Amino acid sequence: MYPATRTTNFNQSMIREMTRLAMQHDAINLSQGFPDFDPPEQIVNAAVEAVRGTANQYTVTWGYPPLRQALAEQYSVQLGWPVDPDVHICVVCGVTEGITTTLLALLNPGDELLILEPGHENFRPSALLADAEAVPVVLEAPDYRIDADRLEAAVSPRTRALLLNTPHNPTGRVFDSREMMALTEFLNRHDLILITDEIYDRILYDGREHVSPGSLDGLIERTVTVGGLGKSFAVTGWRLGYVIAREPLSSAIRAVHDYSTICAPTPLQAAAAVALGQPSDYWQQMREEYGERRQLMLEMLETAGFCAVRPEGSYYTMADYTAIDAPQAEWDSHRFARWLTTDVGVACVAGINFYTKDRERYGEGTVRFAFAKRLETLHEAGRRLATVGS
Ligand SMILES: Cc1ncc(COP(=O)(O)O)c(C=O)c1O
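Above: query sequence and pyridoxal-5'-phosphate SMILES. Below: predicted holo structure tokens.
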């Protein structure tokens, strides 16, 4: 007996592996990006009410109608074109399903998908599941900017699409208008589809505002926008996301979603419709709280001797550990991340894990920390990190 070859080209998730290691060693888990605080009470209550009520059966495959309506209202503004809830939206089981479904729907076997690296570790396996090839385009530390020459060097006659994540995991970049203009020109010149992962679209710092790439001139027709509720409402376990695209892409995405999952969980979709109606102070408060967490995380890392990138959005920072005052500063990033987890009690992820191309050159010497945690959790992590080098 043997598995399909498409499953043999990727290993199990290193981030989830670090979570297991953190649990074994009672380490504070700053490896996987999920909050240790509760979702807003009103949303939890809405989910309970939905389960107690009538929202317990399959819903329409592309999503519970009030949720699609709420998304259509939000995204008609955010994308600047009239998003029709009955045509352009597909509610899915998390952004992860959204991306895999989109790739299955839009890529043919052998097509190439450009992926920016460092990048979220799920992207490449999603491409491989669609029998497509993931072609990395490096963003280089410490600025992690999109480089037009590198894009150009990566493109081939088989290139069909580019996957962009902004605000970005793991660097915290929010790609700016200059980068987006160059990208738009590139995508148009090569007639490529743009798939955007905007799961962190509500988590930005220093007054930045999220601009959905699918709202930009030249990108409206060719962009598939993928978003989710897990991060914005601290409900990563609810597995809720959505895909928004124009026709004919939308119909293909809906069909793949139908045959892979039928629908996302109905009662949670009902609660999500309530969640999207949060007043603007909810978002304001959330940003302020994330701003505090970011500040604390950066201070802790600096005290411990790390040199960390100041994120512009999302809740991660890539930190260079090569100048810490400890022999472990010489170690490779896998060994360093495991040591920090098992011996120091703070779990993180090796930088090399976010690259597939020239991994040693670009990924070594760094680790990623996720700071979507209560301040008290971060303070305890800071106390532990302060022992590094002593
Ligand atoms: C960039 C990015 N996309 C997608 C996901 C996963 O999203 P979901 O939980 O909605 O599947 C993550 C989770 O960390 C992420 O960082």
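Residues 33, 94-96, 120, 165, 169, 197, 199, 228, 230, 236, 241 surround pyridoxal-5'-phosphate (CB under 6 Å).
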